[in-house]
3-oxoacyl-[acyl-carrier-protein] reductase FabG
Amino acid sequence: MLTALVTGGTSGIGAAFARSLARRGFNLVLVARDAQRLEDTSRDLTAEYGVHVETITADLAVREDLWRVARRLEDPQKPVDMLVNNAGFSVKAPYTAEDFHQHEAGFEVMCAAVARLSGAAARAMVKRRSGWIVNVSSTSGYVTMGEYSAIKAYATSMTESLAVELHGTGVHVTALLPGWVRTEFHSRAGITGSSIPDFMWLDADRLVEEALADVARGKVISVPTLRYKVMVAALHHLPRPAVRWVSRKISGVRQRELKA
């Protein structure tokens, strides 16, 4: 049986990946910070799909924890066939904030950890000449809305660079760029999403199904649903001053939501 390792695999998009892969018969290695939630998720997935679920309690902002997960990815006795780098959170602090902890934690979890774990997985997979790496980025990387946009722009570019590096090795790399998805992500960030039209919201399970179809096709960039494909194409071709104007408008709405 194939095995997939999913970071942030107990909630939101990560949990949707875990369910979808378990339904396909993958054994799972789930990585998250909350040990109890890992145990509950593991039990539920095993009961429903009959797959083996291994858990690793880890905070990817802590180097020792990150190295433990990297070592698991490179363990030749227990090969991992797919890595899903999904762990992440909203970074709301402005660049002018005196406390830079949010920025540093965001960089560690969503940039450094993604690159480190992708590299570890790739080394092991190249030896077997097969494997898939999925990095959950965001359409936010195409706008300019603070640290989160900058982080996700890095994640997308880093994934494309890795795809170039691994071309011809049998290892396939995909960056998933979701838009607004109904998960705990926004509520944890204090964002109600009330200003976002209903048609812009995506279901996490549908998102993952479309993403996995793109992975199977060998696509390096996956933007599920036509509405977001059109939006990303428009942002890609807009002049940069126009992108910054759009970003200011969205940021203004976001700030009003946070104050509500």
In short: The mean pLDDT is 91. The beta strands are 3-7, 27-32, 53-57, 82-85, 131-136, 171-176, 180-181, 201-202, 221-222.
